[in-house]
Write a structure and sequence with these properties.
It holds the Pfam family Ig_3. The protein has 2 helices and 18 strands. It starts with 8 loop residues before the first helix and ends in a 5-residue tail after the last strand.
Amino acid sequence: MDNGSGIRVMDFWNMEQVHCGTHSTSGLYRHDYIDYADVSCISFIYVFYGDTARSLKYTNPTTLKIEEWMSRAAEYTWNDIPQSTDNFIINTFYDYEFIWMNERNDTLYAGMYYAEDNDNYPQFVYSIGGVNFTDSCNISSVNQHLHECPGKVPPIIQTPQTSVLFTSRDNVTLVCSYLSYYPVLDVRWNFDSSENGVRMIITNDIDHTKYSGSSTQAPSLTIHAAELSDQGNYTCSMKNRYGWAEGSGIQINMLTGIE
């Protein structure tokens, strides 16, 4: 099965009754044995990048689904990398089906990269010494080089709430989290008042008796002793080195007439 088949590696290994051609360095290969294996008979599974240049070992596999055992830390990695601090992540939001990084997520050791808009994917990328993922992604690979670093984008913001009701003097917490491979440099909340139509920017250095949060360490915002004047729409915004991003708005309203 050639790399340009348009099939993701994870999906490829989860298919049943797949018959593939001869192994080569320019394509994907899957042995028929995977369809018939008794998982209880498998002692361990290895994943090799660049022959033995980079290797991962998973012991006691409980399933034949590749993404299920690659979603946990490997029991063995290449000797120079301490396994206790590494991150092994599947199906990331930057088109990596699998990625092996250090604890800070700023150095990449190996990965499976896929992009639907290119016929030459997936790519199997690795670096013997680890490559700086935040600045350069010219990574040696088995077949080719990955010349552009995916994910050089602003943070992806997650705000699960759309509306919040509160009673007078409640503490109201508006939840905001993010995904970013690059350090978040600034967090702020935009408050559009429904009382007077004025926009206010809430940052970490504003009155802490009224607000807390809105920081890179704690992006969620808590409004202390909320009142009618706090009604309105709140939007979480933040930036990394590649720009600002804004989450979905959260409308908060005070319940009135409650005894």
